[in-house]
Specification:
The chain is mainly α and about 100 residues long. The chain has one domain. It has four helices and no strands. The longest helix has 23 residues, at about 50-75.
């Protein structure tokens, strides 16, 4: 995956194996277990919260997994701060 480190991209590819097994990139998060806990008891399946300390870590990991899958399937190049650079160029052009 261009624009992503070799170890991160290799781990992602080896974990998912086939990008076509997911109909949507959003399915990657639950596949990797990046979802709130559930407690199955009888007919109800209440969703439990994520521990406050781990909430940010899980959110970032899930976002990264979804982004990496999308880049893998689409072949796009990762451009961090893409929108910020476009806004800067627009502001500079307007000021000139």
């Amino acid at each position: 995956m261009k624009g992503v480190g070799p170890i991160t991209s290799l781990a992602h590819v080896l974990t998912l194996e086939d990008p076509q097994r997911f109909s949507s990139s959003r399915e990657v998060g639950p596949y990797l277990g990046l979802v709130p806990k559930q407690e199955d008891s009888g007919d109800s399946q209440p969703q439990l919260g994520i521990n406050a300390k781990k909430r940010a870590v899980v959110a970032v990991a899930r976002k990264l997994a979804v982004l990496l899958h999308h880049l893998w399937v689409s072949g796009d190049v990762y451009e961090p701060l893409h929108h910020s650079e476009a806004e800067t160029r627009t502001a500079q052009a307007t000021a000139a």
